[in-house]
Amino acid sequence: MNNRLLETFKSVLPAVDFWSLRYVNTDYQQIMVRQNRTEPLTLNQSQGVHITLLQNGGIGYGATSDLTSNGLQLAIEQASRWAKYSSACGLIDTSQYPRPSESGQWQSPVEQDWDSLTVADKITLLTDINHALRSDDAIVDWWASLENIQTTSILFTEDVTIEQNFSQLTSMLSALANRGIESQQRSYGIEFSAQNGLEQLARIEFAEQASRISQQALQLLDAPNCPNSKRSLVLMPSQMTMQIHESIGHPLELDRILGDERNYAGTSFVTEDMFGTYQYGSDLLNISYDPRDPQQIASYGFDDEGIPARHEYLIRNGVLLRPLAGHLSQQRGNQPGVANSRACDWNRPAIDRMANINLEPGNSTLEEIIANTESGILMDTNRSWSIDDSRNKFQFGCEYAQLIENGELTTVVKNPNYRGISSHFWRNLSAVCNASTYQALGVPTCGKGEPNQAIQVGHASPVCQFQNVDVFGGG
Amino acid sequence: MDIKDAFFTLSSGLNQTLIANEVLLCTLQGEQTDFVRFNNSRIRQAGSVHQYEFGLQLINGQHHSSATCTISGQHETDLEQLSHLLVTLRVQNHQIPEDPFLNYSTIPENTEFNPESELLESELVMDQLFSSGRSLDQVGIFSNGALYQGFANSLGQKNWQTRYQFNLDWSCYLKTDKAVKTRYAGTRWDQAKFAGKFESIRQQLDLLNTPALTLEPGQYRCYLSPTALSSILEIAAWGGFSLKSHHTKSSPLIKLNEHKTRLQQSIRLSESHANGFTPAFTPQGFIKPDEVVLIDEGARNDYLVNARSAREFNHSVNAQAESPQSMHLAPGQLPSADILQAIDTGLLINNLWYTNFSDRSNCRITGMTRFACFFVENGAIKAPINVMRFDQSLYDILGDKLIDLTRETECLASTDTYYRRSSSSMTLPGILIDGFNLSF
After folding, report:
1. What is the ipTM of this complex?
2. Do the chains contact at B47 and A37, CB–CB below 8 Å?
3. Which architecture characterizes domain B3-208 according to CATH?
4. CATH 3.30.2290.10: which residues of chain B?
5. Residue B159 reports pLDDT greater than 80
6. How far does chain B reach from its first CA to its final CA, in angstroms?
7. Whether the predicted pLDDT of A1 surpasses 80
8. What are the structural domain ranges in chain A?
9. In this complex, is the C-beta atom of A271 within 8 Å of any C-beta atom belonging to chain B?
10. Residue among B99, B126, B171 minimizing CB distance to A263
């Protein structure tokens, strides 16, 4: 199929300065059991190509689900049409566009294949979890689901062929407790979305978590609101994921800094002159772009413009070193970067994205942090996120929190929120746990770009502590 | 063969392969869109996307399975691919339990909306944009082309909608975060209307070109434009109008649903299918009513009900999805021309950004101001403001704190292009409120 596709493409391709053909094939399956009933199964299959052409100083693309000779020819005509138009009024110096030189492959590490369990087996598993979630009449809505995404992406240019095969599993469960007009939800699993197979279920103790999640939802119904105060904040990895994502990942995307996203996803409080010198956080803060863990959700061998992925520090000992910049942004901004030019599918062009943006472990233990905290709060599992367009002033909410008083975890509180400013918050990072609490998590649907693109990004982190944070509750 | 004929020919071909009492529902969603992204008034990324997604739902008694797949539009290739998929669904139907909430239309009702295109070529629009905005730092996206949606079933029903739409969504920047964001969407390009947009842009840029004020946290009298209000209502729509969410107690409007509180008497909010851009039919073949009144006189009136919820909760189907796609908020008495005078001293907020819940049970919503927002003193714009956070319940914003809604409404075509271009829209007035909670 793939050789035939390439031959067909080449047979209708006119002379151009540079071409690339990115073929993407995705199979998505979802099985959900809600309130002990099987919901309609979802099966989505998608395939198409994204053709980029450089001609006479212009660049354009054509994307199509029609892989016949006629379809490819039409997509080439569209790409050529836009290359011609942009040659007179383009922003991009096309000589800076990446020309990949290394072929290669990537394969997600899967131990237990999705099809090793039948549909009926999966429904039985999820139904059993449903029964565990419904532990009390006050649990009024409950569900569990499994999602599998199999993606093949092949990038062809005149010089290289890069084939990458990804397998992603997402397992989720949720319980919602209600009394009168008060509802509280606890959930688990989406943050563990990773490149693996059904072995994930044992690794994250998926079925075993149902009872805890259900009990915590009930516990929240009786809990007082989170107090309004300034105190020490301890974030579990399930919230650190969103904290890293919004207030480090997005601000470091160089295409934002260069203004591409000003109409949609926003700008950045980070400016080009800060790289190499700016003290982003305390010296405990070490952030890397890290494709090394093959199970983490956004690991890959090459980005979607064919640049090999290699580990790089973005922030080391608190100092900002380099932006999230793919090859083209590196050239445009005269900055170092990483291999992060990514597209969510065949129907979208590549732009600067996060991949795995990880916070490296420190030396503390969770027990030490709690024992050393006089007045604090521990928050778990993100449920709300909001940040200004320069990714500086943020407010987050979590599902579950527990006060820390005189060195001990005490009262469970509901509706916990906190607020801060990125440029100050990370400087108040006062403790980073060691590898004992380190978890490789992620966000399966990060939105950005015009036209819009939702893509998976990874964030690994241990538990972290921040000082002097404004926290508050609901009501 | 055009895509409409290709779709109906494919669905007929698939019907020939059905066995015994099987029923087949087919859908199509497709687009031929130019996406032209620009920055610094130059082309950043430009291209065209042609995509067609065919949906199948194979029903056998109370068993059913669904799938979607992209197709080429070339009959032989597509029929072979879809026939294989149909076999997969047939096998799967034997592995899954009966669905008590299966619901599809069994009374064929055909509809067709298939106008001629009146769109301009995208290159001509871009020429006009760069020419009209000469000397401005413009950034954004222009989307232009056809959107296709179809339905057919083996009971003989056929429905089709083609819409040719453009959507220009862009910002003109003065410096840093000081910019004017504008939208222009429609089916036929109107040069005079477009030129009028630039008059407003240049006026606002002049107003932005004064030192910005940093407000003290507190409560402010404030006008929220239709665009700003849409950012709040988008969040309330995360379950706020769904019958399923109501019954599962997950609605952010649970207090309204349980009649524990109400919005101001003047609030009438509806799903106006007849005035929206989404198709008149659902993926199960039901024809939508022209209007569903969700909130009337400030109180809960009805919910959006999809096919499954209709069967589960014994209601009629009135929507494709249980979140609004054609929201309409009834206007009030405040003439738009009198907005500054009505604010007197307070804030003019044109855009909000990144809204989310801070307390879902109380429908308390937070977000940031963005783009051209101004401090108004004695009925005149005094200065732009630096970004501030709001955090307030919808029960305040459209309840006790609401002073009035504008007499004029604005139709906001969605600029959402995740996966494909959205057909959703909102038609909203602006609102004048007292005591809008702002913090850093």
Report:
1. 0.97
2. no
3. 2-Layer Sandwich (3.30)
4. 3-208
5. yes
6. 58
7. no
8. 2-221, 229-472
9. no
10. B171
